[in-house]
Amino acid sequence: xxxxxxxxxxxxxxxxxxxxxxxxxxxxxxxxxxxxxxxxxxxxxxxxxxxxxxxxxxxxxxxxxxxxxxxxxxxxxxxxxxxxxxxxxxxxxxxxxxxxxxxxxxxxxxxxxxxxxxxxxxxxxxxxxxxxxxxxxxxxxxxxxxxxxxxxxxxxxxxxxxxxxxxxxxxxxxxxxxxxxxxxxxxxxxxxxxxxxxxxxxxxxxxxxxxxxxxxxxxxxxxxxxxxxxxxxxxxxxxxxxxxxxxxxxxxxxxxxxxxxxxxxxxxxxxxxxxxxxxxxxxxxxxxxxxxxxxxxxxxxxxxxxxxxxxxxxxxxxxxxxxxxxxxxxxxxxxxxxxxxxxxxxxxxxxxx
Length: 353
Fold this sequence. Notes:
The structure is a single chain. Helix content is 45%, strand content 14%. It is an alpha+beta fold. It folds into two domains: 2-32 and 79-185, Cathepsin B, Chain A (Alpha-Beta Complex), CATH 3.90.70; 192-347, no CATH class. The strands form two sheets. Strands 1, 4, 5, 6, 7, 8 and 9 form a seven-stranded antiparallel β-sheet that branches. The longest helix is centred in the last third of the chain and has 28 residues, at 293-320. The mean pLDDT is 95.
């Protein structure tokens, strides 16, 4: 058996960032707090129109995971990264195993939780092809990978047959089969203060000054103007799928339909406020810790925006339940959220900007 011993932060709903955080702690001896790095790396907005997608109108309250996450964070924190995707399982696992022998943990995913035997709730029950874990070793006697999972304190073993099935995930725009990431930290690794002071303005500039009409402020403004046309432009089935996507991706913890639309108990509560509620709480704590009063003001705006995102989720739910008048308020509500979001992100910029 070959295994790398790393610190491990256990925190639900943070799988895309968990391996990076464990390696950061491994190198610095410092643990980053709560969900801050996860939210900093992903908070935002996207509105995608795709006539051939199952949901032709897709609204989400983040800027993606995977490569987009590392593209944003790498320079801030001080690490280099490489992504390998596609190819065969045999080649990918051979490369991962070689890295482990060199003392380098490897982040792998997307994985389908349906094939992960240590997750009893999902194993051979529910397909959720959205998981990421960190490989820290391999057990040749049991023919299994040794991994750390963000939701569990102890290491877990995944038999090769299950790993191959779980790792063979292909989602357009999100991931290809057998994707893995290598992380290499430089000599100078940023502190929490440096990550926050540099990262929050960087995120704000991306949101406020981007020129992509699908992302950030422009994307949200376009969604507010466009949403009134959904019912006219889409078939009933497409309209339903787009509403379900909207309701799913307001999740503050996981992309999942609200409990009111599910035939089974979800097992946890979610405010469906686009993670703005949690991000607001983090900003309040950081504002006090690092004496940044503008961050506290941003938190108030994000909190208000999150309340409106929750109201938008309720509109989607009521519409899906047959209330034909509910959706008429969606456009105005999106415009209101846009105003609050712009003010919030402006507060994350230095005062002189």
